[in-house]
Amino acid sequence: MDGSFGFGPRVNGLRSMITLAKVKFSVGEPIDVKYVVKNVSSSEQTIWHSGFWPNHMIIVKMTNGKEPPLTDFGREGRAAFAPRGARTKNFALTLSPDAEDATQGAFDLTRIFDLSDPGLYTLQYVYEERQGGWEGRLPSNVLTFRVVATRGTAP
């Protein structure tokens, strides 16, 4: 299938990676994502924990390039994305060289997107920060996964 189970590009001393336990899921089955940000520089890097959504975006696309519909929870998260905006929660986390942060971004994609249509999808996380410390747009690797019909589910 995809094989890109590695970190995304290096941006200003950081890299990020998403992983899935497998690449094929049945309609209605949870699709749990794990996410890690790693300091690949020789100096400390400060990243911000802001309740995830204000400085992170989860991007899922179907093979036609369109995004599947967002759930209510997904719409709330997307509406909160504001890398330059005011925040009620903002915690600076300093990563030493080679340190990783895997404390955010673990989600079941089916809570965020309507993935009831069988097919091939791509997934990417983007961390974007403009509030001091590390600044930039950090894309993760891109994963491909398949959702398949279950018995009694239309193809």
List the helices and strands and how they pair.
Layout: E1 14-20, E2 24-26, E3 32-39, E4 45-49, E5 56-62, H1 72-80, E6 91-95, E7 100-101, E8 107-108, E9 119-129, E10 136-139, E11 143-148
Parallel strand pairs: 2-11
Antiparallel strand pairs: 1-3, 3-7, 3-8, 4-6, 5-9, 9-10, 9-11
Q: Your description of this structure?
A:
There is one protein chain. With 155 residues, the chain is mostly beta strands. It has a single domain (14-148), classed as Immunoglobulin-like (Sandwich), CATH 2.60.40.2970. 6% of the residues lie in helices and 39% in strands. It has 1 helix and 11 strands. The chain has one helix at residues 72-80; strands spanning 14-20, 24-26, 32-39, 45-49, 56-62, 91-95, 100-101, 107-108, 119-129, 136-139, 143-148. Strands 2, 5, 9, 10 and 11 form a 5-stranded mixed beta sheet that branches. Strands 1, 3, 7 and 8 form a 4-stranded antiparallel beta sheet that branches. Strands 4-6 form a two-stranded antiparallel ribbon. A hairpin with a 6-residue loop joins strand 9 and strand 10. It is globular and about 50 Å long. It starts with 13 loop residues before the first strand and ends in a 7-residue tail after the last strand. 28% of the residues are buried. The mean pLDDT is 91.
Sum this structure up briefly.
The chain has 155 residues and is mainly beta. The protein is 6% helix and 39% strand.
Q: Calculate the mean pLDDT score and round it.
A: 91
Distance between the termini: 20 Å
Q: What is the level 1 CATH name?
A: Mainly Beta
Q: Low-confidence stretches at least 5 residues in length (pLDDT < 50)?
A: none
Q: Any idea how many domains?
A: 1
Count of distinct strands: 11
Shape: globular
How much helix is in the residues?
under 10%
Radius of gyration: 16 Å
Identify the CATH architecture: Sandwich
Strand percentage lies at 35-45%
Oligomer: single chain
Element order, helices and strands? EEEEEHEEEEEE
Per DSSP, the total helix count is 1
How would a textbook summarize the main sheet? 5 strands, mixed
What structural class results from the helix and strand content?
A: mainly beta
CATH topology: Immunoglobulin-like
